[in-house]
Amino acid sequence: EYLITGINIKKGDSCIVEYDKGLDVAVASSKPFYADEKKDISSLKKVVRRATDDDIKKINNNRVRAVEIMEKSVEKVKNKNLQMKIVSIDYVFDNSKIIFFYHHFDLLERS
What we know:
alpha+beta, 4-stranded mixed sheet
């Protein structure tokens, strides 16, 4: 759930939203609804704006870059014989962070 104020959003619209890691893109999965007046909305992240054509281009570029970074990362892990597997990469919309998700293989034998 996101807090929408002053923006006309409908189901299927791409939006720029606040996210724990910065700004990101989200697609409205349902039509907006009105929260109960008693509901605490202070913890809801905000919809910043509708995504523009430039935002969509940036998102697509980020996806391409994420694939490139993933390939380079996998190669580096292999070259250094690290006991881990890169699972996925999250390239945050505003390019402020790249987050790596990985599995680490425990080298210790347990008796």
